[in-house]
Write a structure and sequence with these properties.
With about 450 residues, the chain is α/β, with parallel strands linked by helices. It is built from 14 helices and 17 strands. It has a seven-stranded mixed beta sheet with strand order 4-12-11-10-7-5-6. It binds 4'-deoxy-4'-aminopyridoxal-5'-phosphate.
């Protein structure tokens, strides 16, 4: 049963297990948005491998693409040597980037999102000859040293001392809990002013940075979409000052937000696009899209063993083709709007839902204490205990979802992009069951 496997795993592994504490199951099978555990319980999976499984679990085309590699005789792993499959994958991926691939080149960086973030930071330093990076509160970029250094969340950083120096954090325009009241125009203008002053070195004491790194929709930080105007201003100012704009699309990319890339909502073009998760169709792969003028690497300057996973390129290519050929972004955008409307109805009946926000199938539900006093911004205090209880009761109701944001107060939806409307209705039903079971 589940307990046996969980106990055995606890013996095998060191004490850093994270998910099993909140989601105590041993998975036997999975199909689409559904996971079945070893006791034959079924769960609707709204985590989807932390957003990796864009086509859900075990999509037949994805499985077939693995089969095709196996029967073709291709090696499973090729370092950075080329193959016809790598050629096809690269051409297809480039064709999705701005300018249909003419403006960008690719760099395969390794298996994980953090690998690609590291490469992006190094490249920006090499291109500009400067060291500083500007990053944002609530941003998440990974757990390796550089990526963690630019991650705007203190708790994983407190585990070790000595992060990368010369990282400057600025407030991200949070729709609900922003120190500058960023929900409105005035807030966006205030943050833009702050950013421009920093860059222009007006009384900031900060040296001009090499790059700005951000997520156009923050994921782990609690599902925060950036206002388009703010992104446009950042793009304009960075360009004027020769600062590279690195956009981390590891989670928000590949139709998750109802556009192929989340930065498209603001109509801007990054200098470096960080891609992982869905780009490998469920298998480990990470790639940078680099504006050609910033491709400053020389051979040997940035290498890594696992950059040639042929299975990941096969599953990635299949996934990218499926997403684009079936116009999944449009479907996701429409479903996101519908779902936010349904959750807003639920919010009227359950005021513990402080805010519902997000884009496409990247939605966050902020859990608050509605009976306590509002702060000066008009927000209720967040409720970490209730949000943890809700996650637990969601699990009991057969719903797997993760939390994020400050103190984990945001319940996050990140399901397969192929989730059906019927399955979204099941989600709503189960979520309401969890609200009721939590005594709300
Ligand atoms: N960037 C973003 C936006 C992410 O969401 C994540 C992972 N959640 C990462 C980077 C790091 O990716 P990985 O865990 O594969 O290193």
């Amino acid at each position: 049963n589940n307990e046996t496997y969980l106990a055995r795993q606890a013996e095998f592994e060191s004490n850093v297990r994270s998910y099993p504490r909140k989601l105590p199951l041993a998975i036997a099978q999975a199909n689409g948005v559904w996971i079945t555990d070893v006791e034959n319980n079924q769960y609707l999976d709204c985590l989807a491998g932390a957003g990796t499984l864009a086509l859900g679990h075990n999509h037949p085309d994805v499985l077939q693409s693995i089969q095709n590699v196996i029967t073709s005789g291709l090696p499973l792993h090729t370092l950075d040597l080329t193959t016809p499959l790598k050629d096809q994958f690269s051409e297809y991926l480039l064709s999705l980037l701005p300018g249909q691939g003419k403006e960008y080149c690719l760099q395969f960086t390794g298996p994980s999102g953090a690998d690609a973030v590291e490469a992006a930071l190094k490249l920006a330093k090499k291109v500009t000859g400067r060291a500083g990076i500007i990053s944002f509160s609530g941003g998440y970029h990974g757990m390796t040293h550089g990526a963690l250094s630019v991650t705007g969340n203190l708790s994983p950083k407190e585990a070790v001392d000595g992060m990368m120096p010369e990282v400057q954090f600025m407030p991200y325009p949070h729709q609900y809990r922003c120190p500058l009241g960023i929900g409105g125009d005035a807030g966006v203008k205030a943050l833009t002013y702050y950013f421009e002053n920093l860059i222009n070195d007006v009384e900031s004491g900060v040296r001009k940075p090499a790059a700005v790194i951000l997520e156009a929709v923050q994921g782990e930080g609690g599902v925060n979409p950036a206002p388009a105007e703010w992104l446009q201003r950042i793009r304009k100012v960075t360009k004027e000052h020769g600062i590279l704009l690195i956009i981390d699309e590891v989670q928000a990319g590949f139709c998750r937000t109802g556009k192929l890339f989340a930065y498209e909502h603001a109509g801007i073009e990054p200098d470096i696009i960080v891609m992982s998760k869905a780009v490998g169709g469920g298998l480990p792969l990470a790639v940078l899209g680099i504006k050609k003028e910033f491709d400053a690497w020389s051979p040997g300057h940035h290498t890594g063993t696992f950059r040639g996973n042929q299975l990941a390129m096969a599953t990635g290519l299949t996934t990218l083709k499926h997403l684009t050929e079936n116009k999944i972004a449009d479907k996701v955008a429409a479903q996101g709007e519908w779902l936010k409307g349904q959750l807003a109805n639920l919010q009227k009946r359950y005021p513990v839902i402080g805010q519902v926000r997000g884009l496409g199938l990247m939605i966050g539900i902020e859990i608050v204490k509605p009976n306590e006093a509002q702060d000066h911004m008009g927000c209720y205090p967040s409720d970490p205990e209730l949000s943890a209880l809700l996650q637990k009761n969601c699990f009991k109701a057969g719903l797997i979802l993760e939390r994020g944001g400050r103190n984990g107060c945001v319940l996050r939806l990140l399901p397969s992009l192929l989730i059906t409307n019927d399955e979204l209705a099941i989600f709503l039903d189960k979520f309401e069951q969890a609200l009721l079971a939590s005594g709300i």
